[in-house]
Amino acid sequence: MHDNPEVSLKERNTSRFLSEILEKEGFSVDRGICGLPTAFDASFGKGRGPKVALLAEMDALPGLG
After folding, report:
1. How far is the C-alpha of 48 from the C-alpha of 65, rounded, in Å?
2. Of 7, 21, 39, 52, which has the maximum CB count within 10 A?
3. Per-residue pLDDT of the chain (65 residues; tens, 9 = 90+)
4. Residue extents of the structural domains in the chain
C-alpha cells in the first residue's frame, strides 16, 4: 500500500488488497457500501457479545510523506 499510494475515492488497489486479506481470514466482506466503490464492510462471526469497529483512511494525501 505504501509503495502505491492512491488518492481519495480512487483507492481501488488498496481496497481490493485489504478486503481480500480479510476474506482469506474468514471475514464476510460487503464491497461498495454507502455508494462508494472503494468502501467495504467486513464482519466476522455472529451472535451476541461485544462488537469491535475499525475505521481506516486509505487515501494518500498529495504533498505529504
Report:
1. 42
2. 39
3. 778 889 888 999 999 999 999 999 999 999 999 999 999 999 998 889 888 888 888 888 777 65
4. 12-43
